[in-house]
Amino acid sequence: MTLKRLILGPFETNCYILVSDSLKAVLIDPGSEPEKITQVIKKNLLKPYFIIHTHGHIDHIGADRNFSLPIYIHKEDLPLLKDPVLNLSKFFTEPFTVNSEIFTLEDRQEIKLDEIRLKVIHTPGHTPGSICLSILDDKEKILFSGDTLFFSGIGRTDLVGASYRKLIDSIKTKLFLLDDDTVVYPGHGVKTTIGREKRENPFLKNG
């Protein structure tokens, strides 16, 4: 498996492309600038199979219409894909809804594509259906944290459906159970590790 990262749009959202040995690909949070994503796909002869969203805000779902691919999202964030107010597109861009085939996810569900195996970790707080994705691999410890956990930061909780208490609880009772050397790839910004955020994150290191 290989991992590619693209930084897309005015919110500098991280889009991750996971590629199997047979060049099948999973797109995680293709938020905007579909032409950049397509360029990577064509240049590397990739065969994208589906999209996974860590949550349903416009800066993470904005390129969905440009790919005829099934979409996976946690069941509690399904309404965001259909409502421009909930997904915030009404306030930042033109109203946006997703009309692709959608499959809903549950906590602890596994998603597989060739040797790629991902485990869903439901981490409500930023949105009701926010998830993180843990790679199930004996050699690599990787977590895609969406807008739940950042380098020295956490997701916003001043939006509709958000909860500061739930977000902190999600991180401390679920993500902080992972090994300290787990590499965290967030929805925005640079990568970090679970251990580093336990020690240094000002929102989480005390209490």
What's the CATH C level? Alpha Beta
- DSSP summary: helix tally: 6
Q: What is the terminal separation in angstroms? A: 37 Å
CATH level 4 superfamily: Ribonuclease Z/Hydroxyacylglutathione hydrolase-like
By DSSP, the count of extended strands is 14
Indicate the structural class: alpha/beta
How are strands sequenced across the largest beta sheet? 1-2-3-4-5-6
H and E string? EEEHEHEHHEEEEEEEHEEH
Q: Beta-strand percentage?
A: 25-35%
- The low-pLDDT segments are none
Oligomer: single chain
**Structural Rg:** 16 Å
Largest sheet: 6 strands, mixed
Give the CATH topology: Metallo-beta-lactamase, Chain A
Estimate nothing, just give the exact number of structural domains.
1
Query: What's the CATH architecture?
Result: 4-Layer Sandwich
Mean pLDDT: 96
Task: Lay out the secondary structure.
Layout: E1 2-8, E2 13-19, E3 24-28, H1 34-43, E4 47-52, H2 58-61, E5 71-74, H3 78-82, H4 89-92, E6 102-105, E7 110-113, E8 116-122, E9 131-135, E10 142-146, E11 149-150, E12 153-154, H5 164-173, E13 183-186, E14 192-193, H6 194-200
Parallel strand pairs: 3-4, 4-5, 5-6, 10-13
Antiparallel strand pairs: 1-2, 2-3, 7-8, 8-9, 9-10, 11-12, 13-14
Describe what this molecule looks like in 3D.
By secondary structure, the chain is of the alpha/beta class. The chain has one domain: Ribonuclease Z/Hydroxyacylglutathione hydrolase-like (Metallo-beta-lactamase, Chain A), CATH 3.60.15. Helices cover 19% and strands 31% of the residues. It contains six helices and 14 strands. The protein has a six-stranded mixed beta sheet, with helices on one face. Strands 7-8-9-10-13-14 form a six-stranded mixed beta sheet. A two-stranded antiparallel sheet has the order 11-12. A hairpin with a 4-residue loop joins strand 1 (2-8) and strand 2 (13-19). It is globular, with a radius of gyration of 16 Å. The protein starts with a strand and ends in a 7-residue tail after the last helix. The relative contact order is 0.14.
